[in-house]
From TrEMBL:
One of its GO terms (molecular function) is arginine-tRNA ligase activity. This is Glycine--tRNA ligase beta subunit. It comes from Marinobacter panjinensis. GO terms for biological process: arginyl-tRNA aminoacylation; glycyl-tRNA aminoacylation. It is found in: Cytoplasm. It is an enzyme of class 6 (ligase). Residues 585-689 form the DALR anticodon binding domain.
Amino acid sequence: MATQDFLVELGTEELPPKALKPLSDAFSRGITRGLEEAGIDFGKVEAFAAPRRLAVRIRGLEDAQPDKPVEKRGPAVKAAFDDSGNPTRALTGFATSLGVTPDQLDTLETDKGAWVVYRTIEKGRPTVELMPELVDQSLAALPIPKRMRWGAHRTEFVRPVHWAIMLFGSKVIETPIMGLTPGNNTRGHRFHCPKSLIVPKPGDYEVVLRQEGYVIADFAERREQIRDGVMAIARNEAGGQAVIDEDLLDEVTALNEWPVPLMGRFEERFLDVPAEALISSMKEHQKYFHVVSADGKMLPLFITVANLESKDPSQVISGNEKVIRPRLSDAAFFYDTDRKTRLEDRIEQLKPIVFQDKLGSIYDKSVRVAALAKKIADAIGSDPVLAERAAMLAKTDLVTEMVLEFTDLQGIMGQYYAANDGENEEVASALNEQYMPRFAGDDLPATLTGCAVAIADRIDSLVGLFGINQPPSGTRDPFGLRRASLGVLRIIIERELPLDLQTLCEWAEAEHSSITEPNVASTVVDYMLERFRAHYEEQGISAEVYLAVHARRPTRPLDFDRRVKAVEAFRQLPEALALAGANKRVSNILTKQGGDSIGETIDTDLLQDSAEKALAEQIRQQAEKVLPLFEKGDYATALSSLASLREPVDNFFDEVMVMADDEAVRNNRLAMLNLLRNLFLRVADISVLPTTG
């Protein structure tokens, strides 16, 4: 079948920069999915995205759907003909519905009898007919929270659409999309090339835009050009290094069609302001990259990316310097003003700020968190007094001028202001560390005081919100409880803290006075343990391993983690499959014969067969060896040792009848199996593991 390249471009007013890349990805995915469903083969798919355009190019697209055999079954042969062999009404009705005569139908033989069947070939539709539909479907499915209309059009999109291209080879597909008739004309840069440009065929698209239109259409290419340019200008003009924030880089890429990096300066006096405040001001408001020296100290420089080549770049730089000066002046003013009031004197200002209607104010939360942090600090060998102090000061920077202006600086400014107030160094650090980890993979609190406050803050929110029946639901999680749960688990595991979730939640529950739901502590623990599943899946550990440990419901995260790692290591052993199967068999037998009522005491005088005597002796030896290991939490070594039971267990089931006629012998064998299973249950329920390779 013949193939051609295909191109679709949608020309718009400037698209939202943070949405540009997701929109582009979704647009190309939607078209690709439509082609796959239509059964049309194609080659490489290339997405293009710039501030005023979304485009997709598909290489080697077939010019039509493949022809498809169609088979429609009608009535049974017995019902299709009467005794004389003439067509019945059932057969003529079936034929008429298909627009054919009975003699054009075939017979299909099956194991359930013979049926009348209609067979034909459905001719595939031409690609030029299908593509407008697929493009429309993809556009309709784009993740646009709020669409807009423009002019007299009833068409809706994220921004007004002004032109469209749809090419199959050199042929224009003129079927309207987004209320416009497509052509082969695009538009160049708004200032450098404010005119229409012809795209002769799909393969010429980005070349025409670059060479004639001053537009780099490929998002990834433009992104790397900006990165290289920013790094080069910092190195060559200042001997420094530009700090590239990846999210900011994406946003700047989405703002520029023809990026030109330029370096500006600001007054050195602003370096007295915390670097984070300067960076936040430059990044959030102006989309500037900051520059640091070889030893990581911030330099009084910034790099902006202009969307044009100026004949006088110094004028562009001067304009940006004028814009940034008042921003940095504000930050300096906020910093100077905030330091005149101690954090402890701001505690009262937290009382009117509502945390949650039923759970009180931020002040009320601080009091609860302080009491909880004090207990946690004592449990992990930290200073309870420092933890309590840090927790009471933890939210006070929320009412400072700096954080009111730059909300992303909460905690960071708290640490600076606490240090300025002369607070203990660990207390000051904890004000920032309380928010760690802020996201997946983020750093954890470095101090034990920070760990205590971070855990207490999250546990208080979890217990309080579950306690008033406000748990997360579906995709709705306004208080970030899923993230809070994972944060607690990470801190406890990676900092190796000897904390029990049940105890933590009970301590937190005792501090709340508004809880109405029963068994809150246990409910929250169950919720948090469920978060372990995704945590381990990200590490490549199977759900069965998680479920095997979860079945035992260990509530100390560090202990849970050690069990999971031990079971994962055990699962790799050659004996694992057989022992998992044996445990499943043992579990089924014990459940049918009384379950918990079966003891563990083995009477050696009742052992008859050599296989059961051998298993009993091996179980005795293993129990002596592994029980001390369990007490130390060395689950990996214990399970590795228990793997040696595979052969005696296999021999036992091959040679011994568990359900012996003699009741005493039978009960003795059940007790031995119960003891065997309980050894494994000290770690996990390995019967949950797969029993086949």
